[in-house]
Structure formats: C-alpha cells, structure tokens
C-alpha cells in the first residue's frame, strides 16, 4: 500500500479506536454530566492520544485526537476543551516546552486530571491577531503581564490558561508573540463570565491581566520563536474545530434520518419525499467531504508538514463548519415542529453549530487566507 493510500483508508487500529470511543459516547449520550464524560475519557487515555508516550500520552497524533472528538460529538457529548487542552496547549508544550514544563503539565493533560485553556482573542483586535496588545515585560527573574482577552473558553475549570502575549524585541523594538502559562488563581488574573446563547457546558470569559507576575519558567519555549510555536498550536486547533463540527453535524443528521424513516403523515414515511431525502443526502455528502479534508490536514500535520497542514487545516475547518451549519438546519427542519422542542434536542444545536463558523477563525478570514495564500490574490486590508 502506498503512503497516499494509507492516509485515505483508515487503519484497523484507527477503526478500533473509533468504535471504542463511539461506545463510550453511546454510554453517556447528550444528557450526561460533561465532567464525568471528561474524567472517564481521560482515564481511558482518549484525551491524550496525541501526546508523547514518555509523558503519559498515547503516542499518536492529531489524527487520533480529532477522531476521538468527532466520535464524542457524533454521540451527542462533544468536549470543546479537547480543542484547547490536549490539542493546542499539549502540542505546544510537547514540541517547545522545557523538560521541566513537559513533566509538570503533560501527564496531567494526557489523563485529563489537568486542563488548560487558551487565550488569544482580544476585544480590540478580534480577527486581526497582529493587533493584540497583551504585553509581557521582563522584571528581574519575573515576567509581568498586562492586557485583556475575550471569549476565552473554560477558564473557570482549567487549572491554567496559555496566554498569547507579546514581548518587545530589544534590537528592533518590534513586538513578538510569546506564550505564557498563567495559573487560574494568579494574583491580578481576573475573569468575567460572558453570558452566551449557546447550550454548552463550557463557559466563555473576558479576562483581565493586571500586573500578573510570573516566574521566568512560565514562558513556553523560545522567546524568539513565538510565531512558529503559535502556529504549531493553531493548526491542531483548526483540525479539532473541524472534528467538533463534524461530530455535531453527524449527530444532528442521524437524529433527522431516524425521524424521517418513522414519521408518516401521508402514505409513506416523510423520508421518502425527495424534498426531505435529498437535503439530508446532501448534508451527508458535505460532512464526508469535509472529513476527508480534515483527515488530510491531520495526516500532513502528523507527518511534520506544518506549512502544508496550514492550508488543509483552514480548508477543513471552513468545510466542516459550513457542513455542520447546513446539517443542523436541515435536521431541525426535518422534524417539523418537533425540531424546535426541547425534548428532541436539535434546536439547541442551532447556535452551537455557528460556533465552528466564527471560531477560532471566521469563515471570512479563511476565505481571505485561501484568496491570498493559495490563489495569490491581492489583499484588501
Ligand atoms: C463559543 C466561543 C468560544 C471561543 N473560545 C475561545 C477561546 O477559548 N480562546 C480564544 O482566544 N478565543 C475564543 N473565541 C473567540 C473567537 O476565536 C473569535 O470570536 C473569533 O476569532 C472572531 O473574532 P471576533 O469575535 O472579534 O470577530 P471580529 O474579528 O470582530 O469579526 C466580526 C465579523 O467581521 C468579519 N471580518 C473581520 N475582518 C474581516 C476581513 N478582513 N474580511 C472579511 N471579513 C472580516 C468576520 O469574519 C466576522 O464575521 C471563542 C468564540 C466563541 C464564539
């Protein structure tokens, strides 16, 4: 079998992992206590499948981790924090952390006894992350952080947050991105819960960093390689957001298909009417196509091709986000009035599905990236 073929056809090991995670998801389902699901999935090693074996992980890659998130979502119990804790923070620490940082954080992130949030978005920068102003100043042996972040997920349940800040280059005066681990209860680290219209266990927060003092070892990796390190974490983030969207889309579609096979208001089930069947078939095709791109992005990333993974991960996130929004919309419609009831649990996905369209990078910013980077078109900004 050629290398290309192996990335397109799932190995027996991956199929076994998929079946095992699907069984765990089926056991818990959409009404489960998310903390219990997180703890059990962690204990079984599913949340750290991508982390190195020597630090308690499964020794796999983003291929395995995205498969886990997709299956949990397809069972109705997605774990949003998988996108940030093992995928972004775990990856960045495993690739760029010091030996001490790896030993301090990775075993906990791998078995989910420790959770880490990730904060990059700022109120005045938004999609333009070049404009972030959270700054880190060196003061003797310490770093002093000041700034604000917004929409950061899970800060209340995370033991620490990986904060993207900037330090000043002593030679050029230019600000360089740098990553810092800030403990949940660090003095000066404030958080305000933002009320969202999303039915999810994970909450979003506005953060204030007001002279937060950190020991020197809280800087992850090299001060001069911040951008490279950041991108190493952002590609897994996009692949994992695609997995989140695919899981949700598959969950909604399965519910609609079951309903369309049973519900009969004329002579035959509503699923026999092409006006119901075709949009569901279309949703299935779009989800499968997005999944193919997600698998390609994960395979490129796991093979060490950060650059190639960048384009594929962006396209996968775009395709999965759009496929998820359309699948949820069609699923709700298929159930008629029941689509909007609490009992059937589909209407609550309408806002949830939109998350993958706007975060961690919006649909438009991916279209911009593909226009400029893949097609070489000029920029408007
Ligand atoms: C549920 C949820 C969880 C999140 N979790 C986290 C987290 O854990 N950590 C974190 O750091 N952030 C998190 N975010 C933030 C998220 O990444 C941002 O919301 C996202 O990057 C968009 O930024 P913004 O909201 O400031 O929108 P803006 O940048 O203000 O954009 C608003 C609109 O303008 C469009 N737009 C902007 N610039 C352009 C342009 N040049 N061309 C065309 N259109 C443009 C955008 O596409 C968008 O539609 C989360 C957000 C949500 C909703």
UniProtKB/TrEMBL annotation:
One Pfam family from the record:
Acyl-CoA_dh_N
The Gene Ontology terms for molecular function here are:
acyl-CoA dehydrogenase activity; flavin adenine dinucleotide binding
List, separated by semicolons, the cofactors it needs.
Answer: FAD
One term under GO cellular component: cytoplasm
**Database matches in Gene3D superfamilies:** Acyl-CoA dehydrogenase/oxidase, N-terminal domain, Butyryl-CoA Dehydrogenase, subunit A, domain 2, Butyryl-CoA Dehydrogenase, subunit A, domain 3
The organism's place on the tree of life at top rank: Bacteria
Q: Which family does it belong to?
A: Belongs to the acyl-CoA dehydrogenase family.
What this protein is called in its record is Acyl-CoA dehydrogenase
């Amino acid at each position: 079998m050629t290398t290309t073929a192996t990335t397109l056809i799932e190995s027996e090991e991956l199929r076994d992992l998929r079946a095992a995670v699907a069984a765990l998801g089926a056991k818990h389902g959409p009404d489960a206590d998310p903390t219990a699901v997180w703890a059990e999935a962690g204990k079984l090693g599913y949340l750290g499948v991508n982390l190195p074996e020597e630090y308690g992980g499964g020794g796999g890659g983003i291929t395995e981790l995205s498969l886990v998130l997709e299956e949990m979502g397809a069972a109705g119990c997605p774990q949003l924090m998988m996108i940030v804790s093992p995928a972004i923070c775990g990856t960045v620490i495993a690739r760029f952390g010091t030996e001490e940082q790896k030993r301090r954080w990775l075993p906990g992130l791998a078995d989910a006894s420790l959770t880490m949030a990730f904060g990059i978005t700022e109120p005045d920068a938004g999609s333009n992350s070049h404009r972030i102003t959270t700054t880190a100043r060196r003061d003797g042996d310490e770093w002093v952080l000041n700034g604000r972040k917004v929409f950061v997920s899970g800060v209340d349940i995370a033991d620490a947050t990986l904060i993207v800040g900037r330090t000043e280059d002593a030679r050029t005066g230019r600000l360089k991105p740098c990553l810092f681990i800030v403990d949940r209860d660090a003095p000066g680290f404030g958080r305000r819960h933002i009320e969202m219209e999303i039915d999810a266990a994970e909450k979003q927060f506005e953060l204030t960093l007001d002279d937060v003092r950190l020991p020197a070892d809280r800087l992850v990796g090299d001060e001069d390689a911040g951008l490279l390190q950041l991108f190493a974490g952002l590609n897994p983030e996009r692949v994992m957001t695609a997995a989140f969207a695919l899981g949700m889309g598959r969950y909604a579609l399965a519910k609609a298909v079951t309903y369309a096979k049973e519900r009969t208001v004329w002579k035959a089930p509503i699923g026999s009417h092409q006006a119901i069947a075709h949009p569901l078939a279309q949703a299935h095709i779009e989800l499968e196509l997005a999944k193919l791109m997600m698998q390609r992005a994960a395979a490129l990333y796991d093979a060490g091709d950060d650059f190639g993974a960048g384009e594929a991960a962006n396209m996968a996130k775009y395709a999965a986000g759009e496929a998820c929004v359309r699948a949820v919309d069609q699923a709700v419609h298929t159930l008629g009035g029941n689509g909007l009831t609490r009992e059937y649990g589909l209407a609550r996905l309408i806002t949830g599905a939109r998350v993958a369209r706007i975060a961690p990078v919006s649909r438009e910013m991916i279209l911009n990236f593909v226009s400029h980077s893949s097609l070489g078109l000029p920029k408007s900004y």
